[in-house]
Design goal:
This protein is mainly α. The protein has two domains: 11-81, no CATH class; 84-146, no CATH class. Helix content is 77%, strand content 0%. It contains eight helices and no strands.
């Protein structure tokens, strides 16, 4: 049956297999390109153009691989899925780099404090302290704290 379908389509033998595999690779490359472009757009919207430009500019050849992976997977896939709005995603993933984006998207200083207290209970005091210090600095810079 499979052989008949392949034969009827005119795509038989090794040449047909090679053409299909080549097309599959092009499709994957195209999808990755779309995911990367979408990721750059989301990342720019959440973190700001200056942060994105700075992060990409500081990446050497070795770190560019990491930047592409994070942008494609986290920002182009996870952050682009339906189900949660940006504010909810910021609350779920708040970290040292996302405080400013969280403020820009309506997360209050009080909410960030409560998030960090909760995270500290699970991640431990050293990470909690670093998170509080980073949040404090970002909130002060953003004018969200007196």
């Amino acid at each position: 049956m499979i052989g008949e379908a392949v034969h009827r389509s005119g795509d038989s033998g090794f040449a047909g297999i090679a053409r299909r595999r080549s097309q599959e690779r092009r499709n994957i490359r195209d999808e990755r390109g779309r995911s990367l472009r979408k990721g750059l757009d989301v990342r720019r919207d959440v973190l700001g153009a200056e942060h994105l430009t700075s992060s990409l500019a500081m990446a050497d050849k070795f770190m560019t691989t990491f930047q592409h992976a994070v942008t494609e997977l986290a920002w182009g896939y996870a952050w682009s899925r339906p189900g949660f709005n940006r504010r909810t995603r910021l609350i779920l993933t708040i970290d040292r780099d996302l405080h400013e984006g969280a403020i820009r998207h309506g997360v209050t200083a009080e909410e960030i404090k409560e998030i960090l207290i909760h995270v500290t209970a699970y991640c431990g005091r050293p990470e909690g302290r670093h998170s509080f210090l980073a949040a404090h600095e970002a909130l002060k810079e953003a004018g969200a704290l007196p």
